[in-house]
Design a protein that fits this description.
Layout lengths: L1 E14 L3 E8 L3 E7 L18 E7 L7 E10 L8 H17 L7 H15 L4 H15 L21 E3 L17 E3 L1 H12 L2 H6 L4 H19 L4 H13 L5
Parallel strand pairs: 3-5
Antiparallel strand pairs: 1-2, 1-4, 2-3, 4-5, 6-7
Helix pairs in contact: 1-3, 1-7, 2-3, 3-6, 4-6
Length: 254
């Protein structure tokens, strides 16, 4: 079956001497994996177009019963050079792609996830605050998976969240009222809950235009990470690599 769709390239890696395997996110078919034959050759028709996180018009052919499609055309719509001009941008891009690779499904419509990734990349390329954008994206990925609803009330007790904030219990299933978890867990402040509610009302550029305090972003990152790890039963490799690399690059305190 011949198909053509707007897509965002998630992952590209070499296959044998001349080819590359490409994983795409499409609005209509979710994840698509295919082979770009001859993509590693010097004068390949794919030259310069197989950029992770680039937006492109992609054409592919998939035989019935096959897992891998054959990619026949990739026409760039939006490159991502600006995001990849520094190490932090490269690592952040890999983390965004890593989340989508984990949560997107093959052969299932992914309009909401596609739009989230598309608008997130647009905001980053326009120079939006990377830390706010990253937190916005990871929270919405979890929400689209049904794991991190807006924190209005405790899902266990039904009590509304107040000034005391909320807790991610040791099991990591979500935010609950502090009195639901007498000991243990990870506490988040009322300010963090307010920002999580903002994320539900605002688009990514609006959220990035008025960033919350740094401690709020740190709490969102930790809470989302605990919920994500509890669901996946592992950490996303690109997140772990990003944190390790940036930690080694951070200036030492004297």
């Amino acid at each position: 079956m011949l198909s053509s769709s707007e897509a965002i390239l998630l992952d590209v890696f070499d296959l044998q001497e001349n080819d590359r395997i490409v994983t795409l996110l499409t609005p209509e078919r979710g994840k698509v994996r295919g082979v770009a034959r001859g993509a590693r050759r010097k004068y390949s028709r794919f030259a310069g177009n197989l950029q992770p996180l680039a937006k492109a018009k992609v054409t592919w052919f998939l035989k019935e019963g096959r897992d891998l499609a054959r990619i026949s055309g990739v026409d760039l719509i939006r490159p991502v050079h600006r995001l990849q001009q520094d190490l932090e941008g490269i690592l952040l891009g890999a983390y965004l792609a890593g989340q989508v690779l984990e949560f997107a499904q093959e052969n299932e419509p992914s309009q909401h996830l596609y739009r989230l990734l598309d608008t997130t990349l647009e905001a980053l390329l326009a120079g939006a605050d990377r830390h706010v954008v990253a937190r916005y994206f990871e929270v919405w990925v979890l929400r689209l998976a049904g794991l991190f609803p807006p924190p209005r009330e405790c899902p266990v007790s039904g009590r509304p969240f107040g000034e005391e904030g909320a807790v991610v219990p040791p099991s990591g299933e979500g935010l609950v009222h502090p009195e639901t978890v007498p000991t243990g867990g990870y506490s988040v402040s009322r300010s963090t809950l307010d920002f999580l509610l903002r994320i539900g009302r605002e688009n990514v550029r609006q959220a990035a235009a008025t960033p919350p305090p740094s401690f709020v972003l740190e709490q969102v990152e930790e809470a989302a990470g605990r919920i994500r790890r509890a669901f996946l039963q592992h950490e996303i490799k690109s997140y772990r690599v990003m944190k390790e690399v940036l930690a080694t690059c951070a200036p030492s305190k004297t």
